Task: inverse folding
């Protein structure tokens, strides 16, 4: 029997009207702004009215370092949400929106998979409710207003060599990484070098995802440092008088999106910063709203726990006052074999020794998450090629690390295949053993925070940074930004900054290429190794196979 693709399964979904999904959570229809029949935004007035309600329990789903073998973190997040509902818990899924860049690049979609998906799949992976377009527009409005201010006399005395605000677009386009603008004569402005980042790396994206409401959003937008004067004094977005108009563009984007799983359980899909170049979590407003409406909220953080989980704990939870009750680390037998040196083409053959050799990557993530005081369980996302001996090897290894690994078959069987994990998560969350605390205190100096992450999470020996970078961090500390957390931008494929190094390496160095102040979002970005804030397309992008079929249906989204 042929295995159905994710999009074929999603197309067969028996969706309920979105008003019924809202009613499950006690959201009156007048507080839902529908986008068609199967998605809606939740009104700000309703959200404000939830302030006095008790919070549910927050569960983080994270993973090992991603491999070409596939891990299925979002699939497990969705499956666990369905599984908790199946065992009688009122659970809500909170995930990020998909970026067009990776959808048309390598991933081809990001709404879960198999029988653990959020629908409508096509809309979620394409334009959805327009949030990313609004973020792109707000970001680039600020860019236009900066150049316009300079063109009309530059009353703020901006040093054109010290404009730090780049443009963005939601597409992988390496040709735009470094460009020259304003060529063509006096009427076009003053030529200068700049570039584009991908929208999901925009500080506006991070601000939207960390803001509590529209007032907080506008204040944070105004706090953005866009340039420096000739006297090296910061120029803010509010100095350009852009914060009000930017907020107007983001008014609807700030409202969380409500959709449903294949099993008609509620899911909030809102915001989408990348975890390898931004903070990698869905919006604070969606998570906090879900916590008021559900007994359990299952959320994810992008890529491996070294990036997504660390940023979830040290940035999102720190800033929003969240206290996770438990964490799930997703792993696959296939990925363990790949970490053990097996080529992708040979993953179908049983190789218990390779599984054992690859398990230290998982072990490192278990230890790291535990170091935040959060209890951990491992979800083995099942593939048909996994053998009993290979699964047993992973479970035995995880037991040695003081945790439990549970086989999960949600991809093939939906909530019925993940009941055991759901019950374990409830047991961990109800035990009250979580003693969550961030990795470092606010008052620690910025470079020392970076060293703490590199040494304790990546197990590096040292951080290498030029004097100019260290001096820049000290300058920001003197300006009052020393309390901010660090957001590391580095490859997602390794604990090191070299994407080819698998396993659990030690003794490596972390080279810092650049640091950027995200004063509005409230963190300092450290760009490490060769990571790009504007990705490129692979040799054979997914876009080559995405098309409309004769029935007008989208094909090629995985």
Result:
């Amino acid at each position: 029997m042929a295995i159905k693709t994710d999009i074929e399964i999603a197309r067969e979904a028996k969706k309920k009207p979105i008003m019924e999904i809202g009613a499950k959570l006690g959201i009156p229809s007048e507080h839902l702004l529908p986008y068609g029949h199967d998605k809606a935004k939740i009104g700000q007035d309703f959200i404000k009215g939830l302030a006095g309600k008790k919070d549910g329990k927050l569960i983080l789903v994270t993973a090992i370092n991603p491999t070409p073998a596939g891990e299925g973190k979002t699939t497990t997040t969705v499956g666990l949400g369905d599984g908790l509902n199946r065992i009688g818990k009122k659970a809500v899924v909170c995930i990020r929106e998909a970026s067009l860049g990776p959808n048309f690049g390598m991933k081809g979609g990001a709404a879960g998979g198999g029988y653990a998906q959020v629908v409508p799949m096509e809309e979620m992976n394409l334009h959805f409710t327009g949030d990313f377009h609004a973020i792109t527009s707000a970001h680039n409005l600020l860019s236009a207003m900066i150049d316009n201010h300079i063109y009309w006399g530059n009353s703020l005395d901006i040093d054109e060599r010290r404009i730090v605000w780049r443009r963005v677009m939601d597409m992988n386009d390496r040709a735009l990484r470094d460009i020259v603008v304003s060529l063509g004569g006096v009427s076009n402005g003053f030529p200068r070098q700049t570039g584009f980042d991908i929208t999901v790396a925009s500080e506006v994206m991070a601000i939207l995802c960390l803001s509590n409401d529209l007032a907080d959003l506008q204040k944070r937008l105004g706090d953005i440092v866009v340039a420096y004067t000739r006297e090296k004094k910061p120029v803010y977005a509010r100095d350009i008088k852009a914060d009000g108009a930017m907020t107007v563009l983001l008014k609807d984007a700030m409202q969380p999106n409500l959709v449903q799983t294949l099993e008609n359980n509620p899911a909030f899909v809102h915001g989408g910063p990348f975890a390898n170049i931004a903070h990698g979590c869905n919006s604070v407003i969606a998570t906090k709203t879900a916590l008021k409406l559900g007994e359990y909220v299952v959320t994810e953080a992008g890529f491996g726990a070294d990036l997504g989980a660390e940023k979830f704990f040290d940035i999102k939870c720190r800033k929003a006052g969240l206290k996770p009750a438990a964490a799930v680390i997703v792993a696959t037998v296939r990925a363990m074999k790949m970490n053990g040196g097996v080529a992708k083409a040979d993953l179908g053959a049983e190789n218990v020794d390779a599984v054992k050799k690859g398990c230290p990557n998982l072990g490192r993530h278990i230890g790291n998450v535990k170091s935040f005081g959060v209890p951990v369980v491992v979800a083995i996302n099942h593939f048909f090629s996994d053998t009993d001996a290979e699964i047993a090897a992973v479970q035995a290894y995880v037991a040695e690390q003081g945790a439990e690994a549970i086989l999960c078959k949600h991809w093939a069987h939906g909530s019925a295949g993940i009941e055991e994990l759901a019950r374990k998560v409830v047991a961990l969350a109800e035990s009250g053993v979580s003693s969550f605390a961030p990795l470092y205190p606010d008052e620690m100096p910025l470079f020392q925070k970076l060293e703490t992450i590199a040494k304790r999470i990546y197990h590096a020996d040292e951080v290498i940074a030029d004097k100019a970078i260290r001096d820049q961090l000290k300058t920001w500390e003197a300006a009052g930004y020393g309390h901010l957390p660090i957001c590391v931008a580095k490859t997602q494929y390794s604990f090191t900054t070299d994407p080819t190094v698998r396993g659990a390496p030690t003794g490596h160095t972390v080279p810092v290429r650049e640091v950027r102040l995200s004063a509005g979002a409230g963190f300092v970005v450290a760009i490490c190794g060769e990571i790009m804030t504007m990705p490129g397309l692979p040799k054979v992008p997914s876009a080559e196979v995405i098309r409309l079929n004769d029935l007008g249906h989208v094909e090629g989204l995985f």
Q: What stands out?
A: The radius of gyration is 23 Å. The CA atoms of residues 134 and 249 lie 6 Å apart.
